[in-house]
Amino acid sequence: MANVTDLKAFPGFELVPDEQLRWLLDHADEQQYAAGYVLHRPGDSIDHLRLLLAGEMTIGAEPDELLHYTAPAITGVLPFSRLTEGVQVVTVDTDARMLELHRDHLREMATTCYELTATLVQQMTDRVRNFTQQAQQEEKLASLGRLSAGLAHELNNPVSAIVRNADALRTHMRATPERFKAIMHMNLTDEQTDVVNEWLFEKLDNKTAPLTMLERSGLEDDLTDWLDDQRVPDGPDLANSLAEFRFTDADLDFILEQVGPENIAGVLGWVNNNLVTEKLVVDIGEASGRMATLVSSIKSYTHMDRGGGREAVALADGIRSTVTLLGHKIRSKNVTVTVDIPDDLPTIQGWPGELNQVWTNLIDNAIDAAPDSGGTLTIRSYVERDQFVYTTFTDNGAGIPDDIQKKIFEPFFTTKGIGKGSGLGLDIVQGVVRHHNGSIKLASKPGETTFTICVPISE
Prior knowledge:
This protein is of the alpha+beta class.
């Protein structure tokens, strides 16, 4: 049987008067549990303060274990705690011995055992602080996990494009001497050469909307017919390049008139050489630009070049960076994302890294909730009363049932299956928003779920 000496081994109990510890022994029941015993499961009522006298126990199940206790340790309900039901499985790891005090005795303890109550309240304060720190760390790791796979895929695409086009450019440049020989055999005046150059580079500089597949196919057919009529070799390949830059048979009629039938094949061969080079260089430039955008988004998301203090934050930067980094998941789920944030949106005072955790959670959850086809997510920011910035995240998923809406911001609550999420997201979101003196609200019905975040504008 447990005695006062056993209780003195618990954190803080060494300062509690012996008569108060004897009160605890008189009102508590001692229990024995075998290794593997499940004390309670998610949703079960939690009605006891538990003092682990011997053995070990764990909150959470693999691979998402949250806390591991080794005797002596204090768990369960504490004075003034609002904990009523479990959100994680609690398992005894080894044969264990516990002292259990039912919550019905906590009111009497608070009125008769001041030092004992104060020690247990301090335990609750420490528990909240430790849970919060661990939850924040878990959420940062979860966010990295959500982003890393997609980011690797996002970077792989432009890198592969650069390597592929660089090899193609190298191969293409080796064919340039043959084009040069053909040019050397042409008899063109300086005026004709200038006309060809101006005609070509005017087309290259003319940035217009790309053709549809049907439009391009029709244009290629017209160009192929024209080239065949003029007996220009490799007509289909040449027509493909010319159509890429929206050359028409009228353009070819113009250049034929300028250089004559005897020079048209050589001129168009030289033109094609330039078009292929231009296309490869443009593709390499676009891929490099995509990589630069991703690196910029990573830098903005992690704020590698800034301190960790409070600062003026432009919400649009963090939200757009997060959308970019989640781009692979957005495309794989076929979700259409619309970001409607005015350019003149005021800044807020805050911690950019924390806010990016908010955007990651809300956007990631919205993508998961979206239907497999026709999914949409609309992100909108606006100002009200010149004091607050409101940001809404609206998806067209199935919605959140009313009974779940009441629990959605509870710590560790999740509707996802094992391995599908940490269950920490919305609790962390609410904590971060409150840290910024703001609020978060949920409105949900089938086909429309909106999270609204309100934060004050920077002073």
